[in-house]
């Protein structure tokens, strides 16, 4: 673990959609460049409901495009599916390795999938006719099931327009809770609902982050866009982790430039 003297934080943790990027798109070059610089001083930990492969496409590939080194990648930690899956970089193998995974049972995955589809169909929110070829509305991410109303590859404009006030997804969740009670339902991103076993939210992921990296809560600074009660970043706030609420990746970039500015001043 590395850090600059006089900097009390050792970990910068991030939500992804609307925090590091425009939802479901790769991080922009400026964010990639800032993260590469910050990897010299901090452990960087994105934690999101997205699957591992999306972390590679949206973050890791973009860091490589701006020149991240293998040594820097050893300070990047991928907490997929709200932190119920953790991957770190094995420099000897030149690849990522899965450290842990807490998958749903096949029975629970089937139960959740059926409840999501039935609820969306009954409410008139099943948009299968909008899907791109090969895309899907419900995806099994092993430790969680994710409903994406327009699929994964729909355009950003369409996704933002589908449920801006979250009322459609709230209605789907309410109906699902009667069909498949006892699971954790979280609304995230622009069209998504993540469903997992009870307790498998970002508090679970952040607790394991602290354990895996052997740090106290005071060593972590978290960035997220849904830190309000009911938002999928709120469990991090409830834990007492220092949190910066952002509205967009532009807000995050502004804050990260400030952190780098402080480090530069301390090093003079």
Describe it for me?
The chain is an alpha/beta fold. It contains nine helices and eleven strands. Strands 2-1-10-11 form a four-stranded parallel sheet, with no helix packed on it. A hairpin with a 4-residue loop joins β6 (138-140) and β7 (145-148).
Q: Descriptors for this entry?
A:
268 residues; alpha/beta; Rossmann fold; Hypothetical Protein, Haloacid Dehalogenase-like Hydrolase, Chain: A, domain 2; 2 domains; 4-stranded parallel sheet; 4-stranded antiparallel sheet; 9 helices; 11 strands; 19% strand; globular
Which structural class is indicated by helix and strand composition? alpha/beta
Q: What fold name goes in the CATH topology slot of the largest domain?
A: Rossmann fold
Net shape: globular
Mean pLDDT: 94
- Name the CATH superfamily assignment of the largest domain: HAD superfamily/HAD-like
- Secondary structure: helix percent: 25-40%
CATH architecture of the largest domain: 3-Layer(aba) Sandwich
Q: What is the number of strand segments?
A: 11
Number of domains: 2
